[in-house]
């Protein structure tokens, strides 16, 4: 049934695109090698062979986005992620291929094929039809429902969470949903969204009211997600010359059989731009369902692309800081860090980006994970990954 719905939706979208009232095609091609190192001294007894001390992974990533702009307020879009993988994960991790086969949405729009040395993955992460007229906008299909306002963590994104560490996925995940939006004023609107599921208990339903008060954009939301009732809100504005954002969501289990407790996820962030181009950000996350003390499994879990709405980061308290400096008009340097207050878990993300030519960029980025050695209690570098990405946009 899911594939039938997908085929019908794709065909109807394709028919609209074929009418070619106004068609745009955009995308990019990336080459992304990844060089990894693991400190074997951190692995507990019995896990010495979990990872080699060093390994490499490679990826070619092509994206195509097609948008059609029709008459009478109709629009449609399709987005495709086409990726070729080879390296250590392909050769040694069966779960890697299995995860690529599993479409995270209600409809199955993914395909993966594997041979002895590589994996090809094709995923349609956007396919939607939209109608907009006067104060109404209605969209059906796989889309991004962007309710979060903060930079790193978004407790209000109850439909499609994203992972800050998944830097190569700028578009961020979408949801199979029906979204209706009504503009109640120039700076206010009401949004209602429903994401289907295999059972009524697993539905995602939410409502959002956005409005403006004084110098701040405000919003309140309520819904039902991951078998929990959810209610929350957010704000975005200025604190003197700095930007200030915050959001929270409170989750209440809908069924006693879940054996879960009520939980609050909240974040507060501030950012400031200097006249010389330096841009600073800081933020704090409180995740009531997170761990007080981290583990190596927590360090590894943050690299997963699919996150729980109720548990968007593994730690109870996390702090974020970053700085960006445009060295030249073509070269920018930045560094980010996320750490727990006891400094037992620290993530460092330095990067350099250079514009080689029009539509051609190169990026060097590191992800360094520091944690507590379970064998001696000392904090040190457990895992590091270095990425070199060449990107051509069209």
Stretches with pLDDT under 50, minimum 5 residues? none
Structural class: mainly beta
Report the mean per-residue pLDDT as an integer. 90
Report the strand count.
Answer: 19
Sheet having the most strands: 18 strands, antiparallel, barrel
Gross morphology? globular
Number of helical runs?
4
The proportion of residues forming helix, as a percent range, comes to under 10%
Question: Helix and strand string, N-terminal first?
Answer: HEEEHHEEEEEEEEEEEHEEEEE
Span between N and C termini? 36 Å
Mind telling me the C-alpha Rg?
22 Å
Percentage of β-strand residues: over 45%
Brief account:
The protein is mainly beta and 394 residues long.
Structure, described:
- It is a single chain.
- The two termini are 36 Å apart.
- The protein has 394 residues and is mainly β.
- The chain has helices spanning 2-19, 88-92, 94-101, 296-301; strands at residues 23-38, 54-69, 74-87, 110-114, 118-133, 136-143, 175-185, 188-195, 204-213, 216-225, 228-239, 242-253, 263-273, 279-287, 317-326, 331-339, 346-357, 360-372, 379-393.
- The model has no long low-confidence stretch (mean pLDDT 90).
- It has an 18-stranded antiparallel barrel.
- It has four helices and 19 strands.
